[in-house]
Amino acid sequence: MIADVLGDRPGRADDDPARVFADELSRFLAERVDPARVDADHRLPEGLLGELAELGVFGVSIPERWGGSELGLGGACTLVEALAHRDRAVATTVGLHVGLGTRGLVAFATDAQRDRWLPDLASGRRLAAFATTEPGAGSDLSRLATRARLDPATGRLRVDGQKIYVTNGGLARTYTIAVATEGLGGAAFGQNLLVLERDDGVVVGAEERKLGLRGSSTTSLFLDGVDVGVDRVIGAPGSGHKVIGQVLAFGRTAMAAGCTGTAWAALEGATRHVAERRQFGKPLAAQPVVRVQLADMVGGLLAMRAIVAATGRVEHDEAELERRSLAAKVFCSEMDWTICDTALQLHGGSGYVEETGAALLLRDARITRIFEGANDVLLSRLGALEMVRPSAPAATGTAADDVAALLVEVRAAWGGAADGLKVLRDPVRLHRLGRLAVLREVAVATAEHAAPGQAAQRDHALARLRQAAEAAARVPTPTDHVDDVVDALLNAVSP
Ligand SMILES: Cc1cc2nc3c(=O)[nH]c(=O)nc-3n(C[C@H](O)[C@H](O)[C@H](O)COP(=O)(O)OP(=O)(O)OC[C@H]3O[C@@H](n4cnc5c(N)ncnc54)[C@H](O)[C@@H]3O)c2cc1C
Hints:
- By secondary structure, the chain is of the alpha+beta class.
- The chain is built from 18 helices and ten strands.
- The protein is globular.
């Protein structure tokens, strides 16, 4: 089976409850969900969410005390991968719920808040959404214009603003929403997550028309004088920045797991095609260049699974979760795109028409480099982390050590404390360092990946990661002519 070659769900025993559940789910989805139909209909099959709720899908990341199965981040990743392997819109709907949608309540709410909301969310009676993005605040969440103002007369909050591109917006009844909360709890500045119900007066906008993920719901939310008690605030007043950061770290790991599911499906389709299709008197799979491409896809997928599994293992280590989740999100979304693109290429013209399914996988994959943090923003963030809190992983005795050494070399070349400060103000260098940190995190995870019988796949993956790290370390980003080129360009569009 192709799954065996790929190292299906690394580090998980056959009787692992998450794996048993994911296998059951895969069988159910194979019967129940036709991805082409979901894409054409722009909606999930009638009744599917209720059936998934019956199976217990919506409670995987919720503690047993509130009706969930408490499988943690690793379990949620196993589940989301299985869902995405069949259909990315289903995986996005469920993944958002078990990740971003419920994480704030699970990790930061009071028990009274958990008692009120988590049982319905665990059973799937209600679906969750998570809303940070606004017309004027996308990558820069310090610019939130949605405000929750405390009315001193009533002691209640009045919430005004607009959220856009909210996954599950049209399906959810429970929303965790990022808002500015100046003055709350005496803090001059600050943000918080609030939990709102649709019945509080949240107005849902029209469904967006999208390139991919067409079966998943994406809408705006309008908040006009929504009146709620202060018991809707999740976490201490003004603590939203930290809370949102940790929720995003959890959610983007689950999203990275979805990337592995899609890439796995793309590789399966491409492998079958090149084994059957004959050109130049032999199967495409016999062409040496095609063989390198297939090996790259296998190695890339193995590395994706390794970094997702390694991130799942540090769920409770805040600092390490942030670092690894950034690496997992960037690497898996890029590798998903690369694998889906190569799969389409190997299908030739048949990949460009919808019948083979290769085009749908590529369309669905594209958003993952943008949502839950645009990759270029995350790379600079990871580079900054590496400057202020460098990581020094233990030696693995593999090519991963060379990748780690290249990063150390680049950082050392950038000098001591004074130069370090200069680098922190230089997004282009931070971006490059972030790229090396991604490759280091992924290489170390791949080296440590316990996958019996997959030494060749693992070593090929490590060789490619080292090659990419050498390119990033040895060749600085050329910036000498950038200002001239870009200023001329911008002048051309200025009125
Ligand atoms: C289908 C879909 C589902 C979504 N689901 C949700 C959801 O459930 N909840 C939610 O809150 N949001 C959601 N989003 C919004 C998504 O998270 C944002 O689109 C994303 O964070 C980027 O914000 P933006 O679109 O405002 O892009 P901008 O911030 O305007 O950035 C545009 C581009 O500019 C570049 N860029 C910006 N800043 C920098 C920088 N500092 N350095 C380098 N490059 C930079 C990047 O290439 C970036 O992609 C969703 C979006 C889509 C399309």
